[in-house]
Please model this.
Amino acid sequence: MKPTLRPYAPEDFEELYTIDQACYAPGIAYSKRTLRLFLRLPGAECLVAEADGRIAGFILAEHEGESAHLITIDVLAAERRRGVGTALLHAIERTLAARGVRQVELETATDNHAAIAFWQKHGYRTVGVLRNYYLDRLDAYSMHKPLPAPKEA
Model:
């Protein structure tokens, strides 16, 4: 079943926080304060995926000018490998491109092979290694993807 995507609404916050806590290890998952801060950034874009009447995941990015940073993509374990992450990613990339973004960057742990494969499958390329990025001990890849200008209708 294809997920339904919609913009984030403030009443989603607690569920998004719970999903983030389930998706990432303590210390890597965001605190409520940090997640709220990211959602309120100028240029923040957050999309929510629903499946079977409940939130299955979300994606959060921020942009300024022609650059965007993908802050997080969180999909519940039971919903992974069902197209939820891909649907969220494609939708946020379209949204960002429509706002004039031409490059998206993100970070992912060098030992998270599933995530690395996901990003590579979707056109992201490693441009560097960030030493001790997570918890002051786990390295991360810095990955980038150019976005094409939206097609004229």
Notes: The chain has a mean pLDDT of 94. The first helix runs from residue 13 to 23. The chain has one domain: 4-146. The helical segments are 13-23, 32-39, 84-98, 113-121.
